[in-house]
Amino acid sequence: MSRRGLFSEERSAEVVVDSFGDGTGPRLREILSSLVTHLHAFVKEVQLTDEEWRVGVDFLTATGQSCNDVRQEFILLSDVLGVSTLVETINHRALDDTTEQTVLGPFHMVESPDRELGANIALDGGGEQCLVTGRVTGPEGTPLAGATVDVWQANADGFYDVQQPAIQPHRNLRGLFRTDEDGRFWFRTIVPRFYPIPDDGPVGVLLERTGRHPNRPAHMHFIVAAEGYQPVTTHLFVDDSAYLDSDVVFGVKESLIRQFVVIDDPDRAAKLEFDSPYRAVHFDVTLSQEGERMVASS
Amino acid sequence: MSRRGLFSEERSAEVVVDSFGDGTGPRLREILSSLVTHLHAFVKEVQLTDEEWRVGVDFLTATGQSCNDVRQEFILLSDVLGVSTLVETINHRALDDTTEQTVLGPFHMVESPDRELGANIALDGGGEQCLVTGRVTGPEGTPLAGATVDVWQANADGFYDVQQPAIQPHRNLRGLFRTDEDGRFWFRTIVPRFYPIPDDGPVGVLLERTGRHPNRPAHMHFIVAAEGYQPVTTHLFVDDSAYLDSDVVFGVKESLIRQFVVIDDPDRAAKLEFDSPYRAVHFDVTLSQEGERMVASS
Questions:
Q1: Residue A248 domain-assigned?
Q2: In this structure, is residue B141 part of a structural domain?
Q3: pLDDT tens, B253-262?
Q4: Tens of pLDDT along B169-196?
């Protein structure tokens, strides 16, 4: 006698996949079949021991139990294993000449306040003063007037306003700008600092055990949108930041790194109400037209 | 310029694996490298969308948050995906002529009470009366006297004593026996019933969405041990049980299924203080000598 559903080491993944009933949606079946196949292949490849399996179960349990209203440890785990960036990349492949996307991150949790072009979004005074300029265009260089440029960043100590509600001014280092008739935007801020992701939970232990630091290199977040175009969620990275080669969440893309030039010119500084020297960076953003984005390659 | 640590879709898993530092233990590195490689391959294979990634994060989070002192939802998840049985199988491959191992399960949480051979472990009266006989031997048929036979099972309603502490007698359907000088054991009990694993959490939703029932076929648990031999943790399955072809945790092995014969003989029944007809099953257990077990095949 041979029973169809019985487990065997050789056919282990197939047996599990075969257990999915007729009512299983086709996409769920596709996802779970691939997941189970890879999961079983992993267990066999490393010949996972009982004890290692138990450590894995305990780790996943602790990760789930670390989640609360203000912390999502499974997203952190996905981030530090490169899964978040991979999913982001697969789903938002940029056309050759458009600005690359990168992860949204967990700090776009409040609406950025409307600001006039040129406004200073650094309300807490610390850090190196910095002028940000740029232009939003379509793929052929068409300037996009009235595009929205949503910006948020950490302060000179590496914290977002929402992490320090008692210390930082309300909506510090956030702004929603609209480009002028020539597609240009500009604003004043400070150079952001690198910062660690929360590393006092299970993911922190994983980083420590694998000899990794918990830091993200210095960056400003941007969401740029214009009618008739695909919006882009991206970062502008500071080219002399620490950790640019080892972003803990693998969010850095070469095309998003810019030099923050030191400008030692008291006159120009005075016009900006800056001290001299200050820093300046230029970041052009190219959007693709709606429907133009690549959906899949590979 | 090209930065070594930067993420790319093509090299995504390599980039993550390369981030592990020198301090990473060699076994941890081996496990995580394989895990990350399979995880990234899975994401690419199914082209996981942002929304599907979020559903996955939410599912894992809910699974972690369902765990408490008396429930381990991640073990359940591992069980229903066949991972627990796979790990068990890999780590406890039986030699050709020895009894196969299967999963321990979550209900061996209290010590079984010492019982005399022949004792009736069914203290709650329900169910079909059943005589269990068997013999513990070494690989060449050598009878093993004084071997311990630890037995536990569900009652006729499909519940273990620890699940119904207010209803079932203390240590109902549990017993620790010692084989006689001829290696034999025997005891009286009832035929166990199939039962569902807890299906009111995230794992239950997964089963429902994949058209699977939550049941395990009827079985008795055994841990058999003798000095100088490898102990075996296994089940004895009831051959006419429902769900034998579709155990939700994939624990059934062909070699562990036995007929529970109906005996319609008032005289033999009377000697056992049973009603007639009753059921009888024979289950021989063969242990391998210490050090004899296969550690790996693949």
A1: yes
A2: yes
A3: 999 999 999 9
A4: 999 999 999 999 999 999 999 999 999 9
**Cross-strand bridge partners of residue A95:** none
Judged by CB atoms closer than 8 Å, whether chains meet at A90 and B38 is answered as no
Backbone phi, then psi, for A74, in 5-degree steps? -70, -35
When CB atoms are compared, the residue of B44, B62, B209 closest to A24 is B209
Higher per-residue confidence, B268 vs A103? B268
Question: B250 and B156 share a domain?
Answer: yes
B121 and B178 belong to one structural domain: yes
CA distance B13 to chain A (A): 8
Whether the bond between B277 and the residue before it is cis, its omega within 30 degrees of 0, is: yes
The residue type found at A279 is R
Selection from A147, A136, A145 nearest residue A176 by Cα:
A147
pLDDT at A4: 60
CATH of the domain at A251: 2.60.130.10
* Yes or no, beta carbons of A250 and B89 under 8 Å apart: no
CB pair distance less than 8 Å for A64 and B74: yes
Write out chain A residues lying below 8 Å of B51, CB-based: none
Residue at B83 is within a domain: no
Calculate the alpha carbon distances from A147 to A19, A176, A202, A230, B228 in Å: 51, 10, 41, 11, 78
Band of the pLDDT at A97, cuts 50, 70, 90? confident
Instruction: Report the sign of the C-alpha dihedral through residues A99, A104, A107, A108, in that order.
Output: positive
Give the span between the Cα atoms of A44 and A49, in whole angstroms.
10
Q: Which of A3, A31, A39 sits opposite B83 (nearest CB)?
A: A39
- Nearest C-alpha in A relative to B29: A210
- How far apart are the C-alpha atoms of A109 and B237, rounded to whole Å? 54
The bridge status of strand A129-137 relative to strand A184-190 is antiparallel
Q: Do B5 and A247 touch (CB under 8 A)?
A: yes
Give me the number of domains chain B comprises. Answer: 2
Residues A241/A244/A247/A252 CA torsion (nearest 10 deg): 110
Select from A28, A42, A87 the Cβ nearest to the Cβ of B34. A42
Residue B71's pLDDT band, with cuts at 50, 70 and 90, is: confident
State which residues form the domain around B28.
Answer: 9-16+24-48
Are A51 and A164 found together in one domain? Answer: no
Q: How far is CA B198 from CA A6, A83, B70, B106, B213, in A?
A: 22, 31, 11, 11, 11
- The answer to whether residue B38 is domain-embedded is yes
| Same domain as A90, residue A58 | no
- Predicted confidence (pLDDT) at residue A205 exceeds the cutoff of 70: yes
Pick A64's closest partner by Cβ from B29, B63, B89: B63
Instruction: Give the pLDDT score at A110.
Output: 87
Kindly report, residue by residue over B106-161, the tens digit of the pLDDT: 888 889 999 999 999 999 988 999 999 999 999 989 999 999 999 999 999 999 99
Clarify whether residues B174 and B232 are in a common domain: yes
Residues 6+ apart with CB under 8 A from B60: A60, A63, A64, A74
State chain A's mean pLDDT as an integer.
93
CB contact under 8 A, B210 and A19: yes
State the Cα–Cα distance between residues B86 and B81, nearest whole angstrom. 9
Q: Is pLDDT of B50 > 80?
A: yes
